Amino acid sequence: MFRKALWYQNYKQTRMIIWMILALFVLHMPFQSILSLETWQEREEQAQQIEDYVYEVQAWDVLQIFSQGLLPLILSISIITLACLLIGLERNTRRNDFTFSLPFTRKHLFLAKWCYGVVAISLFHLINFFIAYFIIYQSEYRSSLYLVSWIELLWGPLLGFIMFFTFALLIGTFSGEMISQVVLTISLGILPLGVFLLIQEMINVHFRVHLSSHIWIEYLTPFMYVFSITTSVQAILMPIILTGLFLWLAVYLYERNKIEHNGDFLIFKVLNPIFLVIITFCFSLLGGMIVSSLAPWNADALRILSYWIGFTTFLLFSLLLANKLLSMNIMFKGKA
Amino acid sequence: MKVNHISKLIHGKQILSDIDFQVKTGSIVGIVGRNGAGKTTLLRTMVGILDPTQGDVLIDEHSVFKHPQLKEQVIFVPDSSEALKNYSTKEMLTLYKSIYPKFDEDYFHKLMRRFSLSPINKIGNYSKGMKALFSLVVAFSTKAKYILLDEPTDGLDVIVKKQILKILVEEVSTNEVSVIISSHRLDELEFMANDIIMIKDGKVDSHYELDEMKEMYRKVQIVFNGDMPDYISQHVDILSQTGRVYTIMIDQQDKDIYQKLQEASPLLYEELPLSLEDLFVAKLGGDEDVS
């Protein structure tokens, strides 16, 4: 798995984003912990001026530093970019020809990309985690660390990032180029929960019944692992299971890649009809939801009528759009 | 290296069809064909970039698709250095040294000096000719046994072309390297290739040793009283026609043709030197239907 040439090549083509991810991790944990300590101190000083009020750091405050907030979102976008530079951009340019002409199996080529990303993410995460942890541990707010579990602080976010990176690479094994890899990673990353919300809204409009969500829908939604870390064992088990599953599937697909389809929306043409159905179905439901929300809340018949007007309009749009998407070809051609 | 009945279907179109040939050690094989004939696809398949729909590529009787480590003996030089344009010469050296175990660093520096190529921070900043030369310097320094070149002299000036052709011939003669070149430059191939593989519509139209190929055909300029009689035109390849002056190519295996020519009593019959370009035009299509 460790082939110097492949690690060197991977680093060369992702150098910039790798350092950006490191900078984001520094901002996310050590820098944020320093700022938070200042904030907590200030709040405590203010609290002292109010009689009978004692300021206490809450679990939520600690989670903001390690696993919640805006920075994990920016980090997950950076992780998608990393995956896209490792696979998608190769497809848009002629780098894929170079990579596939090397004396390594495709499995090795893929695993080198995966290991490279996982090692970088883990290393950056762990180093910055322990620095941030130490900063809080040596402060007067040490006790706040006991308000949260290590699953919430360390293992949940770390395994979540690794799983999400594996997922983004998996999408790269069947998407034909960089833009489709980005679009598909984001849309499939929220698909289970997204589809549930769309169906929930459709049922609500037609029958005035609010379908309640199930925790398994969140477990099956890759994006949720970046934002929603729970203390349950599933928060550790599910990312591990999904990482293993995605990795196995990604290697299987990468070994069967037909790179003559590079630049197309999808590498495997057999997937075209499946994606056509998914895209049009989701867009139509979205159209129904948007247009029905414009109708008065208590006018049931009008809401249903609006829903189907929106549904049909978006169905037509999405059919046209999906056909264009599935027949596009994007290749960047430089000078010889 | 053996290309074993390779076929390739892309977007439902048959690009290569049952391509079968062998590359001998220390030879230069020219792959010629018109635009879109499948030359680049063939080279990309030979180095494992594309999977063949059928067939295999064997090195030492083992499949390069099942044993990719065999590709340490093969290097593909595409017609553009786009893939590695952001690498410096030093980075290229590090990269190739870690890929090809037999990479000869001293030889690399020697060739760099010979072609006056100075180290650079970005390969993409070299001129087109320098990029082409640099690609060859890297390729030959890997000490790979088989070097696959896709249009190596396309768009280069005469001086660079001469340098490239010279190093190719030198490498083949001194280092027992086999070079497989796809090219439109038939005059260049004629100067150095041992074998010529002509590809038409994704199939091997003909595969000859160049000298043998030239023995098989005669190029003749011939003038008749009127138009060329049908019984002759049906048996020869007309390379060009200006008024009543025909330039034709005669297949030496057609024993009756000389008898027929005598019967037609041409006003002029003159043999001309045969070039690879004549064979190309006769075999792969006339002047009018250039694709």
TrEMBL record, chain A:
<feature type="transmembrane region" description="Helical">
    <location>
        <begin position="304"/>
        <end position="326"/>
    </location>
</feature>
<feature type="transmembrane region" description="Helical">
    <location>
        <begin position="70"/>
        <end position="89"/>
    </location>
</feature>
<feature type="transmembrane region" description="Helical">
    <location>
        <begin position="182"/>
        <end position="203"/>
    </location>
</feature>
<feature type="transmembrane region" description="Helical">
    <location>
        <begin position="148"/>
        <end position="170"/>
    </location>
</feature>
<feature type="transmembrane region" description="Helical">
    <location>
        <begin position="110"/>
        <end position="136"/>
    </location>
</feature>
<dbReference type="InterPro" id="IPR023264">
    <property type="entry name" value="ABC_transptr_acetoin_YtrC/YtrD"/>
</dbReference>
<feature type="transmembrane region" description="Helical">
    <location>
        <begin position="16"/>
        <end position="35"/>
    </location>
</feature>
<feature type="transmembrane region" description="Helical">
    <location>
        <begin position="223"/>
        <end position="254"/>
    </location>
</feature>
<keyword id="KW-1133">Transmembrane helix</keyword>
<protein>
    <recommendedName>
        <fullName>ABC transporter permease</fullName>
    </recommendedName>
</protein>
<keyword id="KW-0812">Transmembrane</keyword>
<dbReference type="InterPro" id="IPR053046">
    <property type="entry name" value="ABC-5_transporter"/>
</dbReference>
<keyword id="KW-0472">Membrane</keyword>
<feature type="transmembrane region" description="Helical">
    <location>
        <begin position="266"/>
        <end position="292"/>
    </location>
</feature>
TrEMBL record, chain B:
<dbReference type="InterPro" id="IPR027417">
    <property type="entry name" value="P-loop_NTPase"/>
</dbReference>
<keyword id="KW-0067">ATP-binding</keyword>
<dbReference type="GO" id="GO:0016887">
    <property type="term" value="F:ATP hydrolysis activity"/>
</dbReference>
<feature type="domain" description="ABC transporter">
    <location>
        <begin position="1"/>
        <end position="226"/>
    </location>
</feature>
<dbReference type="Pfam" id="PF00005">
    <property type="entry name" value="ABC_tran"/>
</dbReference>
<protein>
    <submittedName>
        <fullName>ABC transporter ATP-binding protein</fullName>
    </submittedName>
</protein>
<dbReference type="InterPro" id="IPR003439">
    <property type="entry name" value="ABC_transporter-like_ATP-bd"/>
</dbReference>
<keyword id="KW-0547">Nucleotide-binding</keyword>
<dbReference type="InterPro" id="IPR003593">
    <property type="entry name" value="AAA+_ATPase"/>
</dbReference>
<dbReference type="InterPro" id="IPR017871">
    <property type="entry name" value="ABC_transporter-like_CS"/>
</dbReference>
<dbReference type="GO" id="GO:0005524">
    <property type="term" value="F:ATP binding"/>
</dbReference>
